[in-house]
Design brief:
The complex is a heterodimer of chains A (494) and B (503).
Chain A: H1 2-18, E1 38-46, E2 55-62, E3 68-76, E4 81-89, E5 94-98, H2 99-103, H3 145-157, E6 179-188, H4 199-204, E7 212-219, E8 234-238, E9 240-242, E10 284-290, E11 297-305, E12 324-325, E13 328-333, E14 338-340, E15 354-355, E16 358-362, E17 379-385, E18 395-397, E19 404-406, E20 421-429, E21 434-439, E22 441-442
Antiparallel strand pairs in A: 1-6, 1-9, 2-5, 2-7, 3-4, 3-6, 7-8, 10-17, 10-22, 11-16, 11-20, 12-15, 13-14, 13-17, 18-19, 20-21
Chain B: H1 2-18, E1 38-46, E2 55-62, E3 68-76, E4 81-89, E5 94-98, H2 99-103, H3 146-158, E6 161-162, E7 168-169, E8 179-188, H4 200-204, E9 212-219, E10 233-237, E11 239-241, E12 283-289, E13 297-304, H5 312-318, E14 321-323, E15 325-330, E16 335-339, E17 350-352, E18 355-359, E19 374-380, E20 391-395, E21 398-402, E22 424-434, E23 437-444, E24 446-447
Antiparallel strand pairs in B: 1-8, 1-11, 2-5, 2-9, 3-4, 3-8, 6-7, 9-10, 12-19, 12-24, 13-18, 13-22, 14-17, 15-16, 15-19, 20-21, 22-23
The chains are: A mainly beta (494), B mainly beta (503).
Chain lengths: 494, 503
């Protein structure tokens, strides 16, 4: 009987441990393509002089019958928010934005912007989660010329001086010929002008309905970030779909989430750091590349990175977002030969590569970011652990008690956690002008502990997940052993 | 006291409902791009006559340090398995396959195939305890006999199976100039020759390690499935289907909370979820653009779960499966509807085979009545269900498969037979010519809900039941966590949920 009881208990334990925790929609830390509450356009580039035609389009769709307000924020490549505008979407609406229209022509959604006046038979009238008095009728269709000039300067020169009582800053981004940055698009309750860097945004404006889908296209005669030498015509990809977990509730709702931290962590109110409920992004990725060969292939990695500054950051502090360290990169060629940039914290050693908050960089051997390939192979993949090592601006919140821990305290997620990142891969060639873009594959998710780094011996399997065997309770490997069953997909709760 | 008790129970319920159930890796029914145990290439098209250069390339990467075997199966467009081969991947290996090499030049992974005799990289492990010993991959063929490959080409172009010395079939696919089908790629324990349509594949060969990532490129002068000419190449990740939970040896019989699985209809009768592969959803939102100064066009590549068990007879049933509900929204949210018809009989529903590439201007999709050149399409691709499908109920800790209707096929939904909706996947290829340059982009359509969601209802209208919810199994109605209201302080519209029923 005792044996039977133990067997029964073991069986219960096996069933419990072996079962996935959720079969529900939108109910995990994994990032998927599907209706979301925030969309991230990880990189945009616009030729403001109109000599190359380079621009970035994005399209957002409201998949519900209720009207929604999409709050667009354009950030510099040093994660400085420069411009916000609202797009009123009727039920089932779709809206395309050419960022050339916005940044050069000063027109938001031509010909006349978006307003809360349109509606079709299938769509529902205003109401629900929008504020009772919708303030979108006056959503501006055009931006004042002087302000527009300041916006362009911010994205091209890193100097932002809009006048009109707005504080100027000379350290908001890098200097480049084109306007470069990234965009966030949030579901909100009103046509607010608050920026996501303002804690009040989360208490009054942000909504939690997973209702937006979006994609983008990068058009131009050369790949983003590489200059005019190479050929690219268009690449497109879904935006990053960041869901509110759990979904729903009115503006300012305070609902607990089991997410240990959130996408907007460093901007949220000090006492409620997970109030946005947005899924966090992962830090480790597998990204394929191809470079050279008969067709002169090349690959760019478009990499978005969480900045190190928080709310009320000083102007000068933005500089730290210009060179955010990268913990580890390993390049594998087609014969699995690994190539590593080894570094150490001592003077005289190789410094770790850095990238700003958003960038598009070539993977070929001229790059100083990626390890060079010492073989004649023309392809392979890279393991990218883009964790920046943590920041005092980051936090984790325990699910059980709501205790907030900020850096530099050490938690199972890092110090206090790994930074958030996203990687897209663009492959292109001059021969036939072939291009395509796709997401790199995250290894683990934003709730995974920080990946272990072993820059000297590289003996540790890369990534927080995928490098070692996971064996459900009661199982063995095919050879009957369990000695290598050291892996787990279970993430800690802070 | 009673009130307090009820309030306490409500609170417990609220706390439970408000928290996400999983922050773990790979631990949900949602499909994401990330290391997986099965990759689905939803559509391939290869010009076997070498006229247009149309071909499909795919690349798979083993992100673990252990060697893995990737078992590739090519299926016809009526879901008949035609060819399989194995790719031996050393730790951290990447392998590209041009299907023109396979189907036209009869070569797998040129010049000489993949073999376990390959020397692994310095970071790669030399052995994998999950592979069968002794390893049988040293003889993986690099070149396949022309007698076999000519039959494969014939099958993928004509739907006629005529393998030398084998059984024949006249219903294995549709007729087209190019070789058209789809591919599955599974992690397995040996260089097996079994097809995924064989139940023994699941008890002997299939593994459960989420270790593969993959992408594909469609290259050619014409968009796949059309004859328009504004196209060079597109690429996209393959569909990454994870084993949930991950791990265990070949044949490991582990419980899963997934109500059914990707390979459901092929698995052994007593253990229908043995593969533990995530199921795919049935409803999608797909953007389109057609017309305008760039002469844009859009093709939708739609993969659909077939009916039956992969036999010749069942392929005939799969060749034309109903798409019950398609709504096109233009840029001004005008809705154009083609409502499929399970009843009354006599109307003409849209039908599509298990894989296809169709232009959004075609009559498969509702025609737009206005001058707009873009918008999006709601597609409920559920084929109406089948009694060859199953869901597995957990009754007292015992998995019990059933083919009867369940909570995943609610009354009035678009599942009219069997226990659940069918599985589907959609990608969108947009292409055009701008200033003389060909421009293309391909991306996944957005699933609405996931494979564990109940079947969607018909679009509100004459054929839908009274009070039918808005389109899609999820996303059409407000979801409010317990204790919250909408911004206007009300809860009357809080009728949505992300909680999927257990069958």
């Amino acid at each position: 009987m005792k044996t039977l009881l133990i067997v029964s208990l073991l069986f219960c334990g096996t069933v419990l441990a072996a079962s996935p925790s959720s079969i529900n929609n939108d109910d995990s830390c994994d990032i998927k393509v599907g209706p979301a509450a925030t969309l991230l356009l990880p990189y945009f580039e616009v030729d403001t002089n109109d000599t190359t035609g380079r621009t970035t389009y994005f399209t957002i769709t409201n998949v519900t019958r209720y009207p929604q307000i999409a709050h667009v924020t354009l950030w510099t490549d040093w994660a400085y928010p420069v411009l916000t505008f609202n797009i009123f979407l009727t039920g089932y609406d779709v809206r395309s934005i050419n960022l050339y229209d916005v940044i050069v022509r000063g027109i938001v959604s031509p010909p006349s912007g978006t307003a809360s006046l349109r509606r079709r038979a299938q769509s529902q009238p205003s109401g629900g989660n929008l504020r009772t008095r919708i303030d979108c009728a006056g959503t501006p269709a055009t931006l004042p010329a002087t302000f527009l000039e300041a916006v362009r300067n911010a994205f091209r020169t890193g100097v932002y001086n809009p006048g009109g009582g707005i504080t100027s800053c000379s350290f908001v981004g890098s200097v480049h010929a084109n306007a470069i940055g990234y965009a966030t698009i949030d579901v909100v309750a009103s046509c607010t002008n608050l920026l996501p860097s303002d804690p009040a945004y989360y208490a009054t404006d942000l909504l939690f309905d997973n209702v937006l889908i979006g994609d983008y296209q990068q058009l131009g005669s050369s790949p983003a970030g590489t200059g005019p030498a190479l050929a690219l015509e268009m690449a497109g990809n879904p935006m990053v779909h960041i869901r509110a977990v759990p979904e729903g509730g009115g503006a300012g709702s305070r609902v607990s989430t089991a997410l240990p931290y959130t996408f907007y962590d460093r901007y949220t109110p000090a006492a409620d750091r997970a109030i946005d409920r947005r899924q966090p992004l992962p830090s480790a990725f597998a990204a394929r590349f191809i470079q050279g060969g008969r067709d002169a292939f090349a690959t760019n990695f478009v990499i978005w990175r969480e900045g190190l500054t928080g709310t009320n950051a000083s102007c000068a502090s933005n500089i730290i977002n210009s060179a955010i360290p990268i913990v580890e990169i390993i390049r594998f060629d087609e014969h699995e030969n690994p190539f590593v940039i080894q570094y150490c914290p001592f003077e005289g050693c190789y410094n770790p590569p850095t990238l700003p908050a958003t960038s598009s960089t070539g993977t070929d051997n001229r790059s100083s970011t990626y390890p060079s390939m010492g073989t004649p192979d023309i392809g392979g993949w890279m393991y990218l652990n883009l964790n920046d090592g943590g920041s005092p601006r980051y936090s984790v919140t325990s699910h059980a008690g709501g205790t907030i821990t900020t850096g530099p305290a050490v938690t199972p997620f890092g110090s206090p956690r790994a930074s958030q990142n996203w990687v897209d891969v663009t492959m292109f060639t001059n021969a036939g002008v072939i291009t395509w873009e796709l997401d790199a594959a995250p290894l683990g998710n934003g709730c995974s502990p920080a990946a272990t780094v072993d820059p000297f011996l590289i003996a540790t399997p890369p990534a927080p997940a995928g490098g070692v065997f996971v064996c459900p309770p009661g199982t063995t490997l095919t050879n009957g052993t369990t000695a290598l069953c050291a892996g787990t997909n279970r993430n800690p709760n802070p | 006291m009673k009130t307090l008790l009820i309030a306490s129970l409500l609170f417990c319920g609220a706390a439970f409902a408000a928290s996400p159930s999983s922050i773990n890796n790979d631990d949900s029914c949602d499909i994401k791009v990330g290391p997986a145990a099965t990759l689905l290439l939803p559509y391939f098209e290869v010009d076997t006559d070498r006229n247009s250069g149309q071909t499909t390339l795919f690349t798979i990467t083993n992100v673990s340090r252990y060697p893995q075997i990737a078992h590739v199966t090519l299926w016809s467009d009526a879901a008949f398995p035609v060819l399989n081969f194995n790719l031996y991947l050393t730790g951290y290996d990447v392998q590209a396959i041009n299907l023109a090499d396979v189907l036209v030049r009869d070569v797998i992974a040129p010049p000489s195939g993949t073999t376990s005799a390959t020397t692994p990289g310095t970071l790669s492990a030399s052995a994998n305890g999950n592979l069968r010993a002794p390893l049988d991959c040293a003889g993986n063929p690099g070149v396949v006999p022309e007698s076999i490959m000519s039959a494969v080409r014939f099958a993928l172009r004509t739907g006629l199976i005529r393998f030398p010395g084998g059984a024949s079939c006249n219903n294995a696919g549709n007729v087209h100039f190019d070789a058209i089908g789809y591919a599955t790629i599974d992690v397995v324990a040996s260089c097996t020759q079994r097809m995924p349509s064989d139940p023994l594949y699941y008890t002997n060969d299939l593994l459960f390690d989420n270790v593969l990532i993959g992408d594909y490129q469609q290259i050619g002068s014409n968009p796949a499935g059309t004859s328009s000419g504004n196209f060079d190449a597109t690429g996209n990740p393959m569909v990454h289907i994870r084993a949930v939970p991950e791990g265990g040896g070949a044949g490991a019989d582990v419980g899963t909370a997934l109500p059914y699985t990707f390979y459901d209809r092929y698995t052994p009768a007593g253990r229908r979820t043995l593969d533990r592969r995530q199921p795919l959803p049935s409803a999608f939102a797909a953007r389109f653009v057609q017309g305008g100064p760039a002469d844009f066009a859009t093709n939708l590549m739609i993969w659909r779960e077939g009916i039956g068990t992969g036999t010749c007879a069942s392929s005939l049933l799969s060749e034309q499966m109903v798409v019950p509900d398609i709504i096109r929204f233009d840029e001004h949210e005008n809705a154009f509807i083609s409502v499929g018809c399970f009843e009354p009989p006599g109307e003409c529903p849209v039908t599509l085979p298990p894989t296809s590439s169709t232009n959004t201007k075609s009559f498969n999709y509702p025609q737009m009545g206005g001058p707009d050149v873009g918008g999006w399409i709601y597609i409920n691709a559920n084929n109406g269900g089948s009694t060859t499908y199953s869901v597995t109920q957990n009754i007292g800790g015992v998995p019990v498969p059933t083919n009867a209707r369940t909570a995943l096929a609610p009354a009035g939904s678009t599942t009219t037979i069997g226990p659940r909706p069918s599985q589907n996947w959609i990608t969108t290829a947009m292409f055009g010519v701008l200033a003389g340059n060909h421009i293309t982009a391909e991306l996944d359509a957005m699933p609405l809900g996931n494979g564990c969601s109940p079947a969607a209802f018909m679009t509100p209208g004459p054929r839908a039941p009274a009070g039918a919810p808005p389109i899609a199994p999820a996303g059409g109605a407000f979801v409010c966590p317990p204790g919250t209201t909408l911004t206007n302080g009300t809860t009357a519209l809080c009728t949505g949920t992300n909680v999927n029923p257990k069958p």
